[in-house]
Amino acid sequence: MIFLVRRLLWLLMSVISFLLLVVGIVLPIMPQVPFLLAFLYSLSKFSPRFHKWLLNTRVYRWLKGFMNKEKIGMKRLSKSKVKI
Question: Which end of the chain is more exposed for a tag (fewer CB within 10 A), N or C?
């Protein structure tokens, strides 16, 4: 029972964030990115199938490699090219 209520709340949050995302696309005053992130997060919490698909997309894998903690910092060559 609690699982069903929690799942319906995630669905409700994803629908609301999607509607706010569409309003943000139409109106230049509202930001779109926070609503897009909230939509994707809540939809992945609602649907395990969507979450699995999202983890296997090319963009996610690229961002995961880009955000790798081992690659933090600048190379020495690029440091020498920066002029202060």
Answer: C
